[in-house]
Structures are given as C-alpha cells and as structure tokens.
Amino acid sequence: MAALPPELPPLPALTRAEGAVIDSYLQVLDLLGRINPARGDGTYRGLRAAQALVGRATALRDALALMHERGETELHAETLTRALRVLDGERRARLVAVPPPAEE
Questions:
Q1: Mind giving me the DSSP string for 27-76?
Q2: Which pLDDT score, from 0 to 100, does residue 11 have?
Q3: Contact in structure between 67 and 18 (CB atoms under 8 Å)
Q4: How far is CA 95 from CA 1, 51, 68, 76, in A?
Q5: Which tens digit of pLDDT belongs to each residue from 13-47?
Q6: Is the pLDDT of residue 92 over 80?
Q7: pLDDT tens per residue across span 57-73
C-alpha cells in the first residue's frame, strides 16, 4: 500500500471576501506564470492565458472592492500569508519571476 502524502495544514479562518481575494490572486499568478516569456511556452498558451487574465483581474478587483465596501479596510497579512502558503502560493509566484541564470 502506497504511503499517503502528508496532510496540508488547515487554512486559516477567512471571511468569504478574503477567500475570494486569495483565490483570485492565485488564479492571476497562475495566468501570469503561463504568460511569462522567460518560461518559453508557446504563444498560443500565452495568448489564452492573457485573455483569461482580464476576467480574473476583474474578479480580484471586485473581491477587494467588496471588502472595502464592507468596511474591511485592512488586509491581515499574517493570516493571508498563511493561506497563500497552504495553497502553494510561493511556488506559483515563482513562475511569474524571471528564472535565475543557468549555471555553466
């Protein structure tokens, strides 16, 4: 019997709007990672990701606007950082960056 992967830590408690911000932010990161020209993917894949980016950026804007309208004027960085880590945000954000030079 194969060993199961370790269980992920639980997500911190988030408001619905905070959850929408985190979800939308990660989706934007994923799309930007697919568009990243330093990653060497084809133009069609980048084009499709760029087209989808508009909708995801709008969802992120709307989630932040909803928080602001509800009086949630501060982002709780520590809590949101924990959520990003649980949801693999560090790896996903690295896909947006220019990779380090190859060692010779």
A1: HHHHHHHHH-GGG---HHHHHHHHHHHHHHHHHHHHHHHHHHHTT--S--
A2: 86
A3: yes
A4: 34, 18, 29, 25
A5: 898 899 999 999 999 999 999 999 998 778 999 99
A6: yes
A7: 999 999 999 999 999 88
Whether 52 and 31 have beta carbons less than 8 Å apart is answered as yes
CA 95 to CA 65: how far, in whole Å?
Answer: 27
Running DSSP on this structure, what letter comes out for residue 78?
A: H
Separation of alpha carbons 62 and 56, rounded Å: 10
Sign of CA dihedral 15, 80, 30, 96: positive
- The interaxial angle of helices 77-86 and 16-35, nearest 10 deg, is 60
**Which residue in 90, 100, 99, 85 sits closest to 41, CA to CA?**
99
- pTM value? 0.85
Distance CA 42, CA 35 (A): 9
How does the average pLDDT of the chain come out, rounded? 90
